[in-house]
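Work Package 4 report. The design task specified in the project plan requires that, given a folded chain encoded as structure tokens, an amino acid be chosen for each position. We show below one input record used in the internal validation round.
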């Protein structure tokens, strides 16, 4: 009978771990979704800015590539900074 109680306790413990992990993952997904929405909003704003600054009569292809390169560089710098912070926190 004691073995049944031990097994039941292990099952409950595992169930609690799985429930906690599901909650954490769900929260992460919701935060990521909000990040995507914010990114799309910024994308639209920057596209409109490019259209105003560089009217269709000018070469907008150069402006769009410049925008893509600048955003990529900023993203790389931010990613490297976050990685360094996480590495220093793990030590």
């Amino acid at each position: 009978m004691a073995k049944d109680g031990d097994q039941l306790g292990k099952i409950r413990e595992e169930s609690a771990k799985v429930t906690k992990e599901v909650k954490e993952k769900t929260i992460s997904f919701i935060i990521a979704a909000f990040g995507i929405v914010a990114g799309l909003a910024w994308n639209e704003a920057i596209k409109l800015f490019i259209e105003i600054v560089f009217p269709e009569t000018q070469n907008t292809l150069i402006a769009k590539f410049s925008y893509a390169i600048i955003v990529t560089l900023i993203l790389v710098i931010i990613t490297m900074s976050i990685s360094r912070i996480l590495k220093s926190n793990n030590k």
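The mean pLDDT is 86. Validation will be extended to a larger panel in the next phase.
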